[in-house]
Amino acid sequence: MSRCSSQAVIPAQGGVRGLARGRRWEHSRARAWIPAFAGITMILCATPLHADSDMPAAPLSYTQLPDPKQEAEAKALMGTLRCLVCQGQSIADSDAELAGDMRAMVRERIQQGEKPEAIRAWLIRRYGNWVSYEPPFEPATWLLWAMPLLLILAGIFLARNRFRRHGGTMERRAGEPRES
Q1: What's the pTM?
Q2: Is the pLDDT of residue 170 over 70?
Q3: What backbone phi and psi angles, to 5 degrees, belong to 20?
Q4: Phi and psi at residue 9, in whole multiples of 5°?
Q5: 23: phi > 0 → left, psi -120 to 50 → alpha, else beta; which?
Q6: 4, 20, 98, 149: which one has the fewest Cβ atoms less than 10 Å from its Cβ?
Q7: Mean of the per-residue pLDDT values for the chain?
């Protein structure tokens, strides 16, 4: 009689109980790591909470200028500058600390008599074209400026070909005799 490979093999030492004891030992070792893993996870999740600064906000970040004309210039400029943290909001709308610092800097410079164009140029030199919602027309941004027109032309081309293909089959079907 030959032995079939599908038959269960009983461990030599300790039988089935010895096997169960071994699994229990491995299970208890795994349980010992759970509190350590949970502790490390809590520390890593709590770390971003401490990333915010405890420094007070810049004096003019949330305070308007006393001169309404200067404040209007500052607000107009702040509406055209992108928050470098949020990236989708202007510094006028953002609550990020960096946006507050940039608002304060814009107001301070306008209060000192600097022109908004000079402030914008300084910020672009410091942070790059990304800080401006109005990127300049230069070779590096040609594709950015041309993309809306290229996408519209591609859409018209695709729609024209699609309607041509379907229009021709509809006309042929209309001219064919009906099958009864």
Answers
A1: 0.53
A2: no
A3: -65, -40
A4: -105, 125
A5: alpha
A6: 4
A7: 78
Tokens 């300049």 sit on residue: 136
Around 81, how many Cα atoms within 13 Å sit in the side-chain half-sphere?
31
- List all residues 6 or more positions away from 52 whose beta carbon is below 8 Å from its beta carbon: 97
- Cα 68 to Cα 72, 74, 94: the distances in Å are 6, 10, 22
Task: Select the highest-mean-pLDDT range: 141-145, 153-157, 158-162.
Answer: 153-157
Task: Please report which confidence band the pLDDT of residue 41 belongs to, taking 50, 70 and 90 as the band edges.
Answer: confident
171: exposed, middle or buried (C-beta count within 10 Å: 0-12, 13-18, 19+)?
A: exposed
Per the DSSP assignment, residues forming a β-bridge with 82 are 90
CA distance 70 to 111: 7
Enter the DSSP assignment of 90.
Answer: B
The per-residue b/e assignment along 109-142, b for 16 or more CB within 10 angstroms, e otherwise, is bbeeeeebeebbeebbeeeeeebbeeeeeeeeee
In whole angstroms, give the CA distance from residue 144 to residue 114.
31
